[in-house]
UniProtKB/TrEMBL annotation:
Highest taxon of source: Bacteria
Domain (Methyltransferase): residue spans on this chain: 44-140
Record flagged with keyword Glycosyltransferase: no
Coiled coil location: none
Name of this protein: Methyltransferase type 12
Keywords: Methyltransferase, Transferase
Length: 212
């Protein structure tokens, strides 16, 4: 049976170390910058959370009262995430593809997607965006982090991105070969940009967007 697409099982044991080797702490700093809007009582949806280090970061900021749904297609990544310390927060782990999930409309205060959309070709990315948009409450926050080609930086960003797609395409069956236009999707659904920061020479973008 062929491996499921966008499944990071084969790299789960070393993915975080590889990320730190290539990007230093940039990917983690980008995600930490998004957590200021978290408060006790929030219902949080995390899609593609990987090894789960973000759960400990969230719980360090909000030690109790979060109700987190954690969806991750990789069984190995999910197993790592389940070992994280989450304080008194509630976490429901779902080891499955987000595409198979029936999410109740407007059921989450927070949606967090970190380095998720770079896995999907445009049509699948647009469908995923619509799915998560409908699950987020009006006035809720989408916490978003991903790669972005910055104007004037393509001379080094494009080769790096191409190498990443080659590596993860071979090992993880990543479907995408180019980044989605996430700015266009957030504009299409009329999100309000609350905060935006760039990292790693503007190759990494982190944004808090409010659903209005």
């Amino acid at each position: 049976m062929p491996a499921a697409p966008n499944n990071y099982d084969k790299v789960a044991s070393f993915y975080d170390r590889l990320s730190l080797l290539i990007f230093g702490g940039a990917l983690r700093r980008a995600q930490w910058s998004l957590l200021s809007v978290l408060h006790p009582g929030h219902r949080v949806l995390i899609v593609g959370g990987g090894s789960g280090w973000i759960l400990e970061a969230m719980s360090a900021r909000v030690p109790e009262g979060l109700h987190i749904t954690y969806i991750e297609i990789s069984a190995n990544m999910t197993a790592l995430a389940m070992k994280k310390q989450v304080g008194k927060n509630e976490v429901v782990f779902i080891n499955d593809s987000i595409a198979t999930q029936q999410l109740a409309p407007e059921s989450f205060d927070i949606v967090l997607t970190a380095f998720l959309f770079d896995n999907f070709p445009p049509a699948a990315g647009a469908a995923l965006f619509a799915q998560l948009h409908h699950a987020l409450k009006p006035g809720g926050y989408w916490l978003f982090a991903d790669f972005k080609l910055a104007e004037g930086r393509g001379f080094w960003q494009r080769p790096l991105l191409k190498a990443m797609y080659f590596f993860f395409g071979a090992l993880c069956q990543v479907q995408a070969r180019q980044l989605n236009d996430m700015d266009a999707l957030f504009r299409q659904y009329r999100y309000k940009l609350v905060q935006q920061k760039d990292y790693y020479g503007r190759f990494v973008n982190a944004a808090i967007c409010e659903k209005v």
